[in-house]
Amino acid sequence: MNYKKMDSQDISYIKSVISPERVLTGEGISEDYGHDELGGVFSMPEVLVKIMNTEEAAGIMSYASEKKIPVVVRGAGTGLVGGAVAVHGGIMLDTTAMNRILELDRENLTVTVEPGVLLMDLAAYVEENNLFYPPDPGEKSATIGGNISTNAGGMRAVKYGVTRDYVRGLTVVVPSGDVVKLGGKVVKNSSGYSLLNLMIGSEGTLGIITEAVLKLLPLPSRTLSLLVPFETMEAAIESVPRIIEAQVQATAIEFMERNTIMFAEDYLGKRFPDTGSNAYILMTFDGNSREEVDRNYGRAADLCLELGAKDVFLVDTEERRQSVWNARGAFLEAIKASTTEMDECDVVVPRSHVAEFIKYTHELAEASGMRIPSFGHAGDGNLHIYLCRDDMDQGTWEYKKQDVFEKMYEKARDFGGLVSGEHGIGYAKRMYLDEQCGPCQMRLMEGIKKAFDPHCILNPGKVVALYGR
């Protein structure tokens, strides 16, 4: 695509419609805007605009559409696949100042927010009002707009589902600059094609989310966790389908390996309650009565011991809760701090194949001489597997990384899995999506992209690469 390089006239126009102090260029743009959390994809925008409302987003998109200037939308920049990186330069719209909670509707059990609201702030706000927003991605400083754009999942997905299940309505600026309202506060909707669901998980390639109506639930009155050590990772993960089959209604079922826990201990400078076993399952239970929660966790504990668990630790004090969950929340940063560079595989496989897949990553680590720690959501099959560069030279790292990625995604396909469970495709994982989906599905996705964005100016080069086909 022949995108327009921005010139002084373009910048002058933007400063005429946006307060000049919110329009940054050149060295005025921090290098942080050139990459996301992992940093493997780097490219700087030509202009950074800190937008404040829907009207500003619409005005910028209308101008960009007319001039054929690429536009990328960015929230907190916590992505892991280069999804919010301006790989073709152009305009970056920073939505972090659009961070207002606009309405709490108790009658309809919804909350209306702007896209820059942080997940942790939303969770705290609704809990103060005795309500509950269930999606629980690991990065609590991510924005709601980013969560919706990637259909983020998180630890509570095994019981409550993912972000898509809690989005009732969206206000969206499409690439032409038009503003559309999709869905609303209604519970049911069979009114034509679901453009709302197309927008969720589209990674900012189809429209700019400027407002969201989110579904809430009553806040569970009791929550409790179990930390269960096993001798081997295989034994730990193989217990998960049995736990789910027993219908104990766990809110979260996480798996972790000892070496990952040790990274978190070093990173946080705090001790984990137990590090004497090779693998652990962490389960959470919630409910509205002590009897309900106690019954479910008791059945789960007994079953784990029957299946070979070494012990069952009750995480029922604030000290233990902080120790366990702070470590779990720090796994990504801890692994990142342990190596010179890393990349991630966010694959999802059927739960029945989780143990086989993790065992396969151990085999790959041994064969390649590469360190490959992992953790993830055993309850829904979404695995977070990290390739660590350590002391490899650049050429060796790139070759081995590519080889290991290809083998992991091929194994996932063999198991009936998919490229991404919650982090998305972005720029970094496009080739694996193409290999997985095949020509027909890719043509359908490209057709959707063309229908929304005929000039391919909104977050170009992500998910589908029209100009490269």
TrEMBL record:
Swiss-Prot/TrEMBL keywords: FAD, Flavoprotein, Oxidoreductase
Entries under InterPro entries matching the protein: FAD-bd_oxidored_4_C, FAD-bd_PCMH, FAD-bd_PCMH-like_sf, FAD-bd_PCMH_sub1, FAD-bd_PCMH_sub2, FAD-linked_Oxase-like_C, FAD-linked_OxidoTrans_Type4, Oxid_FAD_bind_N
Pfam family of the protein (one): FAD-oxidase_C
Keyword Oxidoreductase included in the entry's annotation: yes
Keyword Oxidoreductase set for record: yes
Natural source organism: Enterocloster hominis
UniProt protein name: FAD-binding oxidoreductase
Domain FAD-binding PCMH-type positions: 41-219
Reported cofactor(s): FAD
